[in-house]
Every structure is written in structure tokens, then in C-alpha cells.
Amino acid sequence: MKPRISMITLGVSDLPRSVMFYERGLGFPRMDSPPEVAFFTLNGTWLGLYGRAALATDASVSEESGGFAGFSLAHNVSSEQEVDQVIAQAASAGAVITKPAQKTDWGGYAGYFSDPDGYLWEVAYNPLFWVGPSDEPA
């Protein structure tokens, strides 16, 4: 796994309030996105805001469990095969696979694992949203 964070997604209890805080309060530049999620560009990464319950459901964990802190870290890769490789590497390193890699309803391929402290990582291939070294800001 190449070390980088593609996106930080925060599970929030009130999406409109959080969007207002980040967009208007902090001045984060908001990207076009569906109404159930908000994306903001950061320097070399993105911040995503998503409903806390929906994010827990997506990762196949309980939003009430001590293992869910209300956010996940995303590692985007360039192929479905690479998703499988990174998930396998994480499992070999002792990660718990919370959601095996699979086709997604948004047209990609993704799975989730939790690290030894329970922090969630999504490993995803999205043919419309690739993040790689050539995408770094100048």
C-alpha cells in the first residue's frame, strides 16, 4: 500500500449544518455532489461529509458500537485488482475486514477494514474519481 490519504469522510448527525460550517464558516471550496453527501477540495485530498448512520451502514458496522468513531479514511486505487490486493495486505497485517471488496451502488468497487484501534479504512476503485500521484496540486 502506498502511503496516502485520498479522502477523509466524517459521519455527521446534521448534514446541512455541517455543510454550512465547512463551506461558509471555514471557507472550504465545495465540489458538486449528490444531496446526501458533500465534498470539499483540500490540498491534495478531499473532505467528505456523509450522514453518520449511512456511513456506518456503508461500512457494515453499527453506528452505536465503540468501533465506529463517525468517520472513515479512504484509500483510492487504480483498479479492482488493486483493491483486492490492498484488502488482502491489510488482513495479513492484522486488520479486521468489516466489508469484503465488492461492486458498489455508485459504480465502483470497494471494501472496508479496521485497523488495530478500530479506525475504518475504505479501499476503493472509482473509475470516475481516481486519485494518483499525477493528480497532486502544483
What does the model show?
With 138 residues, the chain is an alpha+beta fold. It has one domain: 2,3-Dihydroxybiphenyl 1,2-Dioxygenase, domain 1, CATH 3.10.180.10. The protein has three helices and eight strands. The longest helix is centred in the middle third of the chain and has 13 residues, at 80-92. The two termini are 24 Å apart. The model has no long low-confidence stretch (mean pLDDT 86).
In short:
Pfam families: Glyoxalase. The protein is α+β, with helices and mostly antiparallel strands and 138 residues long.
* CATH architecture level-2 label: Roll
CATH topology: 2,3-Dihydroxybiphenyl 1,2-Dioxygenase, domain 1
Major sheet details? 8 strands, mixed
Distance between the termini: 24 Å
User: Order of strands across the biggest sheet?
Assistant: 2-3-4-1-5-8-7-6
Approximate shape: globular
How many helices? The count is: 3
The overall average pLDDT, rounded, is: 86
Number of domains: 1
Helix content: 10-25%
| Total beta strands | 8
InterPro entries: Glyas_Bleomycin-R_OHBP_Dase (IPR029068), Glyas_Fos-R_dOase_dom (IPR004360), VOC_core (IPR037523)
Organism: Oceanisphaera psychrotolerans
Protein name: Glyoxalase
Secondary structure elements and pairings:
Blueprint: E1 7-12, H1 15-25, E2 30-31, E3 37-41, E4 46-51, H2 52-58, E5 71-76, H3 80-92, E6 96-103, E7 109-114, E8 120-125
Parallel strand pairs: 1-4, 5-8
Antiparallel strand pairs: 1-5, 2-3, 3-4, 6-7, 7-8
